[in-house]
Design goal:
Elements (H helix, E strand, L loop, with lengths): L19 H25 L13 H24 L10 H10 L2 H14 L3 E7 L4 E7 L10 E8 L6 H4 L3 H10 L3 H12 L1
Amino acid sequence: MNYQAKQLPFKPDSLKGISDKTSLTHDKLYQAYVAKKDQIQAELKNVDLTTANQTYSQLRALKDAETFAVNGAYLHEIYFAGLGGDGAPKGDIIEQINQDFGSFEQFTALAKACAMAARGWAVLAWDTFEQCLHIYNGDAHNQGGVWGALPILTIDVYEHAYFMDYGSDRKAYLEALFQNIDWQAVDQRWSQIKR
């Protein structure tokens, strides 16, 4: 069964400080991850299991590529789902943020700093072991993820997310990004996770 790429949950020209060209280019990249995910998973159905080994085998190569493509698709879906709002904090998620980070302002400062330090992603996640929110960083789609941590809000800091609009000024992109977070949508994801 093929996985269906999701439509952008906002109009590409509706974001403040993030151009429609960036949004549309970013969406094409996401759709390519979905297509590659499906291709890899189709190839896995026919892979020769008898040659599997830890140094190199077709199975090993496909399974490694699978995590990169699948996470590339999922992280982008969560990223896009969190955009299209006015950046104003709202919902039960804000109460949890205040509890776990001290205040919304402290969370925002930490999230932006983590996004400046990451090479690929900063991820606000519910850590099911510690039972609290935590920000984890990933330098690649399949690096930095933590088993048992459920992503709620993802911040894409690969250059494709901002270079057309801001060049190398990642900080300016993050300022614009936080003005476009749809906290109501983030809160809906939080509600699903808490159930």
